[in-house]
């Protein structure tokens, strides 16, 4: 029975990086200068979701928006187990972009940061947003 | 009314067919309820990973052809979401006797932690579920000064309870706070012994109307809420608001206050989960939930025992089955049938199951139900 399930697709879509079939990338988009998303023309709600039909808060019309790459940490952690092809340790944080949405970023350095720590998104790695501390060493 | 409950054992059983896990739970629930299988007039099944068609394959063995049957997937709250639909259907007179089943077999899908879903923005960014809970925990460490020892106390308490649960997956040894903290790091600050195992199992219940049977439990409340946006406007940690919404509805339905609950089974997939859930249920103010385990308030012999079964941390967490396993424990506790795990006061019990993982939402769903012997 040890071989049961080995090497066959499962209900979980793990993605092509770990042997599954490829899926459309659902992550926020960084174009090198800004995080792309939408802002509601009526209530101003910012979102990094791609292509929602209307504002999920007030049902208003959405317009394309470019969000600042800087923001403040809401919370962060260092993951100590491998996840897919990602080798530990790696740091993750929820980053509240200035006047923008909360996005999950990978930390340039794997360390727990105090809430409020200022970060800037500096690039992507394998599609993940990567952010580093604004004051001090910033990954390029 | 809740007529009867049953569960399989919980553990990793890749050698068992998935429907055999279900059948053992269903057999026990039907006998416990004192009904004939033919009395059942609908089936609701909660499962996350299926496999697809599992409900029909279960149905094939129990001899209930053609009756209404449907499947619910609400992440870790799938089992109790199925239960909630059964309760509502009976309350509104649609059915007289409903079989609820929660089931998942994860050992044939994952060798360790759940692989994140690549179609989800945060799953694609390699955020594992313990990482999501670790982000809650770090916020609580920074905002309220919650300590690693307070978190570890939840694991010590629940694993101590689980040692007396013959159906629990992890019952061989009860760690100390120090051993919990010295187990290997998974996602800071959560260590290995603060994370539930991946499991196989099934839980079943029979829900029906008031038939005047003194063993039946009154379902004073059942509330199910779906998720809401969790974003830059949210001041509470992920998950808190969804539990709070369901709790408010349930306490209003039952006409009860949190301090009236004698015994609880709540969603402790990770230690911080129990802390935040108890705050959202109103057992402690924000930031004070971490004191409940160390103070003994939630111990089996405390004022309000929480997770006397051992919780997800010890019993295991076969996602769709978990809510039904919680419901079974509360049923046994309220009837005074919990053996070595029996709590002293057992008039009113509460089950809370929270399912989540979809990025940007405060949960996929949360169910809170309140039962009593009255």
What do you see in this structure?
The complex is a heterodimer of chains A (140) and B (374). By secondary structure, chain A is mostly beta strands. Chain A has strands at 29-30, 35-40, 46-47, 62-67, 70-79, 90-97, 102-107, 118-125, 128-133. Chain A has one domain (26-133): OB fold (Dihydrolipoamide Acetyltransferase, E2P) (Beta Barrel), CATH 2.40.50.840. Chain A is globular, with a radius of gyration of 17 Å. The model of chain A is unreliable at 1-10 (pLDDT under 50). Chain B is α/β, with parallel strands linked by helices. In chain B, strands 1-7-4-2-3 form a five-stranded mixed β-sheet. A four-stranded mixed β-sheet of chain B has the order 8-11-10-9, sandwiched between helices. In chain B, strands 5-6 form a two-stranded antiparallel sheet. In chain B, helix 2 links the parallel strand 2 (42-46) and strand 3 (69-72). In chain B, helix 3 (78-91) crosses helix 11 (319-335), helix 6 (148-162) packs across helix 9 and helix 8 (240-254) crosses helix 9 (271-280). At the A-B interface, strand 3, strand 5, strand 6 and strand 7 of A face helix 4, helix 5 and strand 5 of B.
Approximate helicity band of chain B: 25-40%
Overall geometric form of chain B: globular
Q: What's the tally of helices of chain A?
A: 0
Cα shape of chain A = globular
Report the CATH architecture of chain A: Beta Barrel
- Indicate the CATH topology of chain A: OB fold (Dihydrolipoamide Acetyltransferase, E2P)
Helix-strand string of chain B: EHEHEHEHHHHEEEEHEHHHEE
CATH level 1 class label of chain A: Mainly Beta
CATH H-level superfamily of the largest domain in chain B? Thiolase/Chalcone synthase
């Amino acid at each position: 029975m040890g071989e049961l399930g080995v090497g066959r697709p499962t209900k979980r879509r793990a993605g092509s990086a770990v042997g599954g079939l490829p899926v459309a990338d659902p992550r926020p988009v960084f174009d090198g200068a800004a995080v792309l998303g939408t802002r509601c023309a009526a209530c101003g709600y910012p979102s990094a979701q791609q292509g929602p039909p209307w504002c999920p808060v007030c049902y208003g019309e959405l317009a394309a928006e470019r969000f600042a790459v800087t923001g403040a940490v809401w919370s962060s952690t260092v993951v100590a187990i491998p996840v897919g092809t990602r080798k530990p340790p790696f740091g993750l944080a929820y980053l509240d972009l200035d006047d923008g949405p909360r996005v999950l970023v990978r930390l340039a350095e794997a360390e727990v940061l105090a809430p409020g720590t200022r970060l800037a998104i500096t690039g992507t790695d394998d599609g993940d947003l990567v952010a580093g501390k604004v004051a001090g060493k910033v990954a390029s | 009314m809740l007529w009867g409950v049953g569960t399989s054992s919980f553990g990793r059983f890749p050698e068992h067919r998935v429907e055999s896990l279900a059948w053992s739970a269903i057999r026990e629930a039907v006998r416990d309820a004192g009904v004939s299988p033919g009395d059942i007039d609908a089936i609701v099944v909660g499962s996350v990973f299926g496999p697809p068609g599992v409900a029909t394959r279960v149905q094939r063995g129990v001899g209930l052809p053609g009756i209404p049957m449907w499947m619910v997937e609400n992440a870790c709250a799938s089992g109790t979401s199925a239960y909630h639909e059964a309760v509502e259907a009976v309350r509104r007179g649609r059915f007289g006797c409903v079989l609820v089943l929660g089931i998942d077999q994860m050992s044939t899908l994952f060798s360790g932690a759940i692989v994140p879903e690549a179609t989800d923005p945060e799953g694609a960014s390699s955020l594992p579920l313990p990482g999501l809970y670790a982000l809650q925990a770090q916020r609580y460490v920074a905002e309220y000064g919650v300590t690693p020892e307070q978190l570890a106390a939840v694991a010590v308490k629940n694993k101590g309870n689980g040692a007396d649960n013959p159906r629990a997956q992890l019952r061989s040894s009860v760690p100390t706070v120090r051993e919990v903290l010295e187990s290997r790091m998974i996602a800071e600050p959560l260590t290995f012994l603060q994370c539930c195992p991946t499991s196989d199992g099934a839980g079943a219940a029979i829900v029906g109307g008031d038939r005047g049977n003194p063993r039946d439990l009154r379902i004073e409340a059942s509330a199910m809420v779906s998720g809401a946006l969790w974003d830059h406007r949210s001041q509470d940690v992920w998950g808190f608001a969804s539990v709070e919404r369901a709790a408010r509805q349930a306490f209003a339905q039952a006409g009860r206050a949190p301090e009236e609950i004698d015994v609880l089974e709540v969603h402790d997939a990770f230690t911080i989960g129990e802390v935040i859930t108890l705050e959202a249920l109103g057992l402690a103010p924000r930031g004070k939930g971490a004191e409940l385990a160390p103070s003994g308030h939630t111990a089996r012999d405390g004022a309000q025992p929480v997770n006397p079964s051992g919780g997800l941390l010890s019993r295991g967490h076969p996602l769709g089955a978990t809510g039904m396993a919680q419901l079974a424990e509360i049923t046994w506790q309220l009837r005074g049938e919990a053996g070595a795990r029996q709590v002293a006061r057992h008039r009113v019990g509460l089950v809370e199951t929270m399912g989540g993982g979809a990025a940007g939402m405060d949960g996929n769903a949360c169910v809170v139900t309140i039962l009593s012997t009255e």
